Amino acid sequence: MKEQTRERAPLDWAMTQNNLGGVLFRLGEREGGTARLEEAVAAYREALQELTPARAPRQWAMTQMNLGVALGVLGERESGTPRLEEAVSDFRDALQELTRARMPLQWAMTQMNLGVVLEVLGERTARLEEAVAALREALRELTREDAPLDWAMTQNSLGVALGMLGERRAGQRGSRRPSPHSAKP
Prior knowledge:
Elements: H1 10-31, H2 35-50, H3 57-77, H4 82-97, H5 104-124, H6 128-139, H7 148-173
Helix pairs in contact: 1-2, 1-3, 2-3, 3-4, 3-5, 4-5, 5-6, 5-7, 6-7
């Protein structure tokens, strides 16, 4: 950072900020608090000052996705929804550049991340249908053959979202069946 200053090499500086955000995010995931995640969000936002859609569209989109992931984890750890809503917005912004035609795997991963955040939002608000749609979109590219782990994680998230949606709908009708895990033999 001392050599690649923002003034001398703005895009290199921004990519270093993005990488710093990634390290801070990983630390924040492990620590369980929010301080490192907040630092990661700040680093990503700094990077986005230089990584604009006009100057570096793909790097901008990947940083938007990274910011969305960090905000999503922060939102999960908080009781409100503002961070989760921000994450949804960041993922949707990233999808403007990360199209299925240009970058299919990154598109699918962004769709999956969007679906997971919408799933968390869906537990607190009425966004489960959006989560299901995003996860199904991700599965168009994340196949069992090409990306088995990502495919399995996305299938799992889809199952959870569909289960919550089913429970919510059953509760609205007033009749609730026991879940397979709670059924007695």
